[in-house]
Design a protein that fits this description.
The protein is an alpha/beta fold and about 525 residues long. The chain is built from 15 helices and 21 strands.
């Protein structure tokens, strides 16, 4: 069999009875496996620690999804040492051979697709389609980066100089720290990890603390795929305690981070210091937050705009870096568009997401819940609440889809990343004002424009300062290979995941000239 051209994995259609049944069955299976223990993985050895991270179901925090061993500084030292030991062999494995481990892992994920989705429903609070999309994206990353490594293993064309033999090729960097967020607990973790690994770099993977079980499942899958010991070291632990040790370590060659602006900037600063005995400048890849806007002008299809805004703002409870947190609407259509947005928002069902009737689930944990509500309280004082905003019954971290109108440009609500189901509506006089407000943020991740005016669309293409611009469609749901993903400015280093450039971040080029 030859490897086919890359194609993104199809999403599951849960309106088909067979798929609904498969997902229900997977949920029952996963529910029978809750509360298991997951060890650290260091150099192929499983390490149980006395202290555990208890991963909770955010829809029912009394339910423990799993107990995950918790690493300390000594484990970080051991994992980095194991990584360097593995590097000696892993760097010599040809790129196309390393790629096969990813193809194998993708095949395992396809076979376990519903089960992995079920784990996400319970650990992260994703609805069925959101969980399914996350698993599909993880598969896409594996398939895509494997092929990219095959491409990057081919000879690099050079201009021959005289009688010399001139060649250049890519070599890996060394052992890196991979630090993903919890909000795409399989997709982002898999993409960041597999890119570094297929490029020839062993990693120390520190999953986000709210979703360590998804990380443990990934580590198991890579083990099942036959990855040599020490190439993937799995090290859950508290970011604020082991994070600095890992990032600042003299043996850490690079840091691949996705998460908040605050932590990303901290890591960038710490990684710039040279530890005693350190022999390189650490490379930092940091993908951070967003304050993403959707602009609607007076020529737009208002039904499409309302659909796009509501889907982008409230999908996965607004906990996406790409989520629409600002809708910027021109005066001329404000009165017609707002009822469409409110009516669609009112239809969003909310509750425990093991039930597929619920479109929205809980936010991830108590900390997120408190932080989001502090913004809602601020909004009630400084803007006009027109949907949601109230506490809900039950123990889960449920926050209803919340909309504020009359949000002032430049205000806290309009500038800071809330990372929850809170949408700010900004009313502007015209298109030019809309562009100005959209760009008046230190972030620059995603954005959408709904307009039929060709001149304005071209202007947006040139002038909207975002890494991912969408026109007449929602601003979430980037597809690996079709929408290279990453933001400008304080949204990060624009690493463009799922693009032909991404693996280069984990490689360096060596040039060799020989005269005979
Ligand atoms: P976060 O709080 O910054 O955490 C991200 C990761 O960093 C977690 O694994 C965390 O571990 C770890 N960490 C915390 N402090 C650390 C330290 N001092 N040193 C090293 N690592 C440390 O972000 P999050 O809440 O998980 O994720 C939400 C954020 O991610 C949002 O801002 C969102 O916009 C952003 N995001 C960006 C993208 C993108 O592509 N641009 C994609 C997804 C999400 P603990 O969990 O143990 O604290
Ligand atoms: Mg949890």
């Amino acid at each position: 069999m030859t490897i086919k051209a890359y194609q993104s994995h199809l999403l599951t259609n849960f309106s088909l009875p067979a798929h609904r049944a498969a997902m229900s069955q997977a949920l029952s299976l996963v529910k029978s496996r809750l509360g298991r223990h997951y060890p650290l993985l260091i150099g192929g050895r499983r390490v149980e620690t006395p202290e555990k991270i208890a991963s909770l179901n955010p829809a029912d925090p009394a339910q423990v999804v799993g107990y995950v061993s918790k690493a300390d500084g000594g484990h970080v030292d051991a994992a980095l040492a194991a990584g360097w030991e593995a590097f000696a062999r892993w760097k010599q494995v040809p790129g196309p051979v390393r790629a096969r481990y990813l193809y194998k892992a993708a095949a395992i994920m396809r076979r376990r697709q519903f089960e992995l989705s079920a784990w996400e429903v319970l650990e992260a609070g994703k609805s069925w389609p959101e969980a399914d999309a996350d698993v599909a994206e993880a598969i896409d990353f594996l398939e895509y980066y494997a092929r990219q490594m095959e491409r990057l293993s081919r000879p690099i064309p050079l201009t021959p100089l005289g009688d010399e033999e001139d060649e250049a090729f890519y070599v890996p960097l060394g052992v890196g720290a991979v630090i993903p967020p919890w909000n795409f607990p399989l997709a982002i973790l898999t993409g960041m990890s597999s890119a570094a690994i297929v490029a020839g770099n062993p990693i120390v993977l520190k999953p986000a603390s709210p979703t360590p079980v998804m990380g443990a499942l990934f580590a198991e899958i890579m083990e099942e795929a036959g990855l040599p010991a020490g190439v993937l070291n799995f090290l859950p632990g508290d970011g604020s305690t082991i994070g600095d040790h890992l990032v600042g370590h003299r043996l850490t060659r690079f840091v691949s981070f996705t998460g908040s602006r605050e932590v990303g900037l901290h890591i960038n600063r710490l990684a710039a210091d040279v530890a005693p005995g350190q022999r390189w400048i650490k490379r930092v890849v940091a993908e951070m937050g967003g304050k993403d806007a959707i602009i609607v002008d007076e020529t737009a299809d208002l039904d499409a705009a309302a659909d796009g805004i509501v889907a982008s703002a409230f999908g996965f409870q607004g906990q996406k870096c790409s989520a629409c947190s600002r809708a910027i609407i021109v005066d001329a259509v404000y009165g017609e568009l707002m009822p469409k947005i409110l009516e669609r928002t009112a239809r969003l069902t909310i509750g425990p997401v093991d039930n597929p009737d619920h479109v929205m689930g809980p936010v991830v944990d108590q900390r997120a819940y408190d932080k989001i509500f502090s913004y809602i309280e601020w909004g009630k004082q400084h803007a006009r609440l027109s949907a949601g905003g109230h506490a809900m019954e039950g123990a889960g971290y449920f926050i209803p889809a919340t909309i504020f109108e009359d949000v002032a440009p430049g205000s806290k609500l309009e500038q800071e990343e809330i990372f929850g189901p809170v949408l700010s509506i900004i009313r502007v006089s015209d298109w030019e004002a809309a562009l100005r407000v959209a760009n008046d943020t230190e972030y620059g991740l995603t954005g959408s424009v709904y307009s039929k005016n060709r001149g304005r669309i071209e202007q947006a293409r040139a002038e909207l300062e975002v890494g991912n611009l969408y026109i007449n469609r929602k601003c979430t749901g980037a597809v690996v290979g079709s929408h290279p993903f990453g933001g400008f400015n304080m949204s990060g280093t624009d690493s463009k995941t799922g693009s032909p450039d991404y693996l280069l971040l984990f490689l360096q080029m060596k040039s060799v000239a020989e005269q005979f």
